Backbone:
């Protein structure tokens, strides 16, 4: 038993004698915070928001509808605290067997009555990492002057973390990886042989330059990435009036000419008729949730795609997990909207009208009174403002993720999260700007680094605990997989497969290439409309922005690979094309290995393959051998 | 920078470990990148009343007044004012005292004593009636569009409960074509595992009679060659210089999935997909068309361990239950299409002792009315194609407008009461639910509860909580449980 010190008499007297003790204002910091901290924040602060209620800051408490300043005793919060129903009472019985003492409840009631006084800047949320906005060119750690700056930063990071650098990649594996990453195709056996025979010291640099100069191959490949990100080529009809406008021709042209990224962003945000499909979004039919109007889609997509901000939470209510508020989401939306835009909280009108504004006012403001086109131009200028480092960081992080398997900030759409190395992120971002927003220059810098040209890290059981150890394997996209099968077997389709509305993508691409009709160039899978096989392999239908696809292979996909009619017919066509070359089977086996894996078969593999070719008909044997090649992880994953 | 969890020395698993793990893995339950159950909101799942669920989907808006909730009947007669017509079929008695359903469903009438009929299911009026949107809402519990891809309720069951038998796909979808029909993108939008990923997406079998092909070696390949090809792959992998790389969890996922696929394709269980295996007289009894054959397939798949099977009459705009004109005649055909197979399915499950642990649901995205589009006072556009004040010809006779104010859902087995009716609609137009209205959220909560899934089950997706029923607020209608 603890003996309490007797209460000093003067306090008792003061309480007893004070004429109106209740007029003393509630002391938020000393009276309220301890009660809330002890009883409430476990479930209602930080990233916890049980029952949709967070008391991270004053606005959140006010906006949650749990307090009634006019009639504090009728506040939902007070009713729950005083409730005699144990199922309903707060704090919950399992955590706090006894209800809050009445004097504490009375204190909270007074606090509400006094208008919820709050310490400015105080939050129950944890201290958050604050992502910098301004660009920063970090000082490089010591190292050889001519070393790739990425490697100097990574070497310092490895040193600091006492980690070993992964082993360097051999020439053949390098060429396969860089070729798949930059143009989406593996090197042909001839390209591989020439590369291996070349003994010049700068042959890797030259190979990189050559690949990036294959403009159409580059555009064919990167179209997939940008289509996902800009949710281009969504085909839905019924939800939509007037359809979703595609931007394929514009996008392909921009990739073909390697349009500088700042100009690219400006044309998407303040568009021409060719590029307006992105901000116009999807006009859903009927009454939709307030967070899915075109204006709010604009707010969500512009912030996600270009700034790595998830406004989805904030477009319904102040976010519980980051700093973005309902007002931020609506201010951005109001830039787009032709009509005055009323704020809706959780789909209920608030009576407040949004004023067009931008989320980083320190860079400049939007003139809310300017016409829409002008507001969009102002926004485009702010997103690509020289003092706005966020746009470049977001983009280079996406490119790093594509090439290295995981972002420097991860996930890539949460750019308010701390990067595992801010020097690396900031260096790449400043490099992009220095090179006049040249995307290919950034790609070249990354793939030229020693760390990119290292063996993949083997990840045992998930990525959760790994910050960075080196490149991580990436699976081929649906489009890449199909292209690689076609390339290895030399059986490219000469014509498009029409989707439900015909070969829209191909037509737009032909136009962007300055053609009247398709010229017989192999039709890459990205230029085909979505079909069930591509869909099974993970190509999304793009009603949502997709910034990374699943990296594992599901059973349903495996069933498609095992017995799907589409793949079976690709294998048949491939077998026929190979056999039509009339080469001896041994030579064909070697060729397939070289084309698929960029290596020769080892003797066991070779004899297994030849054994397969001698079973049943030659065409069947070849098709089966090809299957065993294409479903090997060595083919399916970029190592 | 502090990275105490960083461990560069941690070796990857050895190949032997990897193979052992591969053997130990259950085929459909493992996914590395899928969203995580929110630990802090862990919920108590109710004790399951059923292990499997069959949803018989009456796609296109089945009129309850013409099926499970008949009202005053007026026969076809030229000159009848349409506002007088509520039902175009008379009512017939069922095996439950005092319960009547529409003429044309005599076999279903005989099995009504096996289940519960909810007559007060209501849906929100979404402004402009569009079947695929309402179907999305019904199948996912969320009104589209959503900012994240909402999973189908079958995917929830596959994800939370896993497969009943590890070679059987846990979620099978029978009878709906996804290509070449109107609104197909919109149908695909909810025929999906959503953010759970493709591991939990449906195994789609649009043609029940061709289901066997979906689990058979590809065309032109016998089982010998198919088996030989897979064995050759395993040999190739054994000799591959890749070695340790194969233990990478990505690569492992690929080998595991290929293994699961081949286990299904090589398993005797795949015979479950083959309707030709049934006795001809059984097949004949079910075979009223694709839907009937689908019911038989569903029974076979559930017998062999499928978790959730949906069988649809198929949604195609303006076809089947989606009667914008000539409703009465169309319903004569539809009655015949569903009556025998549904009754037979229930009896078959009962005979096999499976009905108690299988929840069978008959439902539709909304009902229909002769006059009202949406609900009274709605500004939804009138979509009838047979607009008239009085009946002039047969095509005017039927329920041609979409009504969201009170529809019927029948449930059998899975621990629901037998011969029980819950809720009611008004006998006069507007035939709104006037007793115990059941929302989609509450209906889903009831279904999930029967299956042993808490309606408050929640996953973290893009750092927001996403619940099995919207905001975790669906309440099971416990009155329907025995």
Residues:
């Amino acid at each position: 038993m603890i003996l309490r010190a007797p209460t000093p008499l003067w306090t008792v007297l003061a309480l007893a004698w004070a004429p109106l003790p209740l007029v003393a204002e509630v002391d938020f910091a000393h009276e309220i915070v301890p009660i809330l901290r002890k009883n409430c924040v476990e479930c209602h602060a930080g990233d916890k928001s049980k029952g949709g209620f967070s008391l991270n800051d004053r606005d959140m408490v006010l906006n949650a509808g749990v307090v009634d300043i006019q009639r504090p005793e009728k506040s939902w919060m007070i009713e729950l605290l005083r409730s005699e129903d144990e199922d309903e009472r707060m704090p919950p019985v399992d955590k706090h067997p006894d209800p809050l003492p009445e004097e504490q409840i009375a204190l909270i009631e007074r606090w509400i009555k006094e208008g919820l006084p709050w310490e400015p800047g105080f939050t129950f949320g944890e201290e958050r990492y604050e992502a910098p906005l301004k660009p920063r060119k970090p000082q490089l750690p010591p190292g050889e002057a001519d070393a790739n700056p990425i490697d100097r930063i990574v070497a310092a990071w490895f040193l600091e973390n006492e980690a070993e650098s992964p082993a360097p990649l051999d020439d053949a594996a390098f060429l396969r990886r860089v070729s798949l990453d930059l143009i989406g195709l593996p090197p042909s056996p001839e390209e591989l042989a020439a590369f291996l025979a070349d003994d010049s010291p700068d042959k890797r640099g030259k190979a990189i330059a050559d690949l990036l100069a294959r403009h159409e191959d580059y555009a064919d490949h990167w179209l997939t990435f940008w289509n996902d990100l800009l949710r281009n080529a969504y085909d839905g009809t019924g939800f939509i009036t007037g359809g979703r406008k595609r931007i394929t021709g514009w996008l392909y042209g921009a990739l073909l000419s390697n349009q500088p990224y700042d100009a690219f962003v400006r044309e998407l945000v303040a568009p021409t008729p060719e590029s307006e499909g992105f901000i116009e979004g999807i006009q859903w039919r009927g009454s939709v949730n307030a967070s899915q109007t075109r204006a709010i889609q604009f707010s969500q997509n512009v912030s996600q795609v270009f700034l790595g901000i998830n406004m989805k939470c904030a477009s319904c209510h102040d976010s519980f997990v980051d700093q973005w508020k309902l007002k931020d989401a609506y201010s951005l939306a109001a830039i787009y909207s032709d009509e005055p835009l009323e704020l809706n909280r959780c789909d209920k009108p608030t009576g407040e009208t949004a004023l067009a504004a931008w989320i980083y006012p320190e860079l400049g403001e939007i003139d809310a009174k300017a016409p829409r086109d002008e507001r969009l131009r102002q926004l485009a200028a702010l997103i690509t403002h020289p003092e706005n480092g966020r746009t470049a960081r977001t983009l280079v992080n996406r490119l790093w993720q594509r090439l290295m398997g995981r972002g420097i900030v991860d996930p890539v759409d949460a750019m308010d999260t701390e990067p595992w190395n801010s020097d690396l992120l900031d260096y790449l971002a400043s490099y992009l700007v220095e090179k006049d927003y040249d995307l290919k220059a950034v790609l070249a810098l990354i793939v030229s680094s020693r760390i990119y040209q290292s063996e993949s890290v083997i990840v045992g059981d998930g990525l959760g605990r790994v910050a960075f150890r080196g490149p991580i394997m990436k699976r081929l996209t649906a489009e890449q997989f199909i292209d690689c099968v076609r390339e290895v077997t030399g059986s490219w389709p000469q014509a498009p497969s029409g989707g439900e509305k015909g070969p829209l993508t191909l037509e737009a691409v032909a136009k962007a290439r300055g053609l009247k009709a398709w010229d017989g160039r192999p039709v890459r899978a990205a230029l085909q409309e979505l079909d069930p096989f591509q869909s099974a392999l993970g190509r999304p239908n793009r009603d949502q922005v997709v910034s990374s696809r699943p990296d594992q292979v599901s059973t349903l996909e495996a069933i498609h690979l095992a017995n799907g009619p589409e793949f079976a017919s690709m294998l048949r066509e491939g077998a026929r094309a190979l056999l039509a070359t009339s080469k001896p089977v041994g030579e064909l086996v070697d060729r397939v290995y070289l084309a698929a894996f960029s290596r020769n078969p080892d003797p066991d593999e070779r004899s297994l393959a030849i054994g397969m070719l001698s079973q049943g008909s030659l065409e069947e044997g070849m098709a089966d051998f090809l299957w065993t090649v294409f479903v090997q992880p060595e083919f399916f994953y970029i190592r | 920078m502090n990275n105490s969890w960083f461990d560069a020395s941690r070796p990857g698993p050895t190949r032997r470990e990897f193979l052992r793990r591969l053997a130990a893995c259950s085929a459909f339950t493992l996914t590395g990148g899928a969203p995580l159950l929110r630990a802090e909101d862990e919920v108590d799942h109710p004790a399951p009343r059923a292990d499997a669920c069959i949803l018989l989907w009456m796609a296109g808006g089945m009129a309850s007044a013409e099926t499970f909730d008949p009202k005053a009947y007026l026969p076809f007669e030229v000159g009848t004012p349409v506002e007088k017509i509520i039902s175009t079929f008379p009512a017939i008695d069922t095996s439950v005292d005092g319960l009547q359903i529409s003429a044309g469903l005599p076999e279903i009438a005989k099995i009504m004593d096996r289940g519960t009929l909810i007559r007060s299911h209501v849906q929100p009026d979404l402004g402009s009636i569009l079947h695929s949107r309402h179907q999305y809402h019904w199948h996912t519990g969320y009104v589209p569009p959503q900012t994240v891809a909402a999973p189908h309720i079958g995917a929830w069951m596959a994800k939370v409960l896993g497969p009943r038998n590890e070679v059987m796909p846990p979620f099978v979808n029978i009878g709906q074509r996804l290509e070449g029909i109107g609104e197909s993108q919109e149908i695909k939008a909810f025929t999906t595992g959503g953010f759970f990923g493709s591991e939990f997406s449906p195994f789609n079998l649009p043609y029940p009679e061709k289901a066997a092909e979906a689990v058979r070696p590809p065309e032109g390949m016998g089982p010998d060659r198919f088996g030989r090809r897979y064995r050759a792959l395993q040999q190739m992998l054994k000799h591959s210089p890749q070695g340790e790389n194969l233990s990478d969890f990505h690569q492992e996922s690929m080998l595991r999935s290929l293994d699961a696929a081949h286990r299904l394709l090589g398993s005797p269980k795949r015979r479950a997909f083959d309707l030709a295996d049934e006795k001809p007289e059984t097949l004949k009894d079910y075979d009223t068309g694709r839907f009937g054959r689908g019911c038989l397939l569903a029974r076979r798949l559930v017998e062999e361990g499928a978790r959730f099977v949906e069988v649809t009459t198929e949604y195609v705009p303006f076809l089947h239950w989606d009667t914008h004109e000539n409703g009465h005649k169309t319903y004569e055909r539809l009655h015949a299409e569903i009556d025998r197979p549904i009754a037979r399915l229930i009896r078959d499950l009962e005979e096999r002792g499976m009905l108690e642990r299988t929840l069978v649901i008959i439902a539709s995205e909304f009902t229909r009315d002769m006059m009202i589009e949406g609900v009274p006072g709605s500004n939804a556009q009138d979509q009838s194609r047979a607009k008239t004040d009085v009946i002039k010809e047969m095509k005017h006779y039927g329920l041609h407008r979409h009504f969201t104010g009170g529809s019927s859902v029948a449930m059998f087995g899975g621990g629901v009461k037998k011969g029980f009716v819950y809720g009611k609609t008004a006998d006069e137009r507007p035939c709104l639910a006037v007793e115990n209205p059941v929302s989609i959220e509450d209906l889903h909560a009831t279904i999930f509860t029967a299956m042993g899934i808490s309606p408050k089950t929640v996953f973290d997706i893009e750092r927001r909580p996403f619940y099995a029923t919207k905001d975790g607020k669906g309440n099971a209608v416990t009155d329907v449980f025995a």
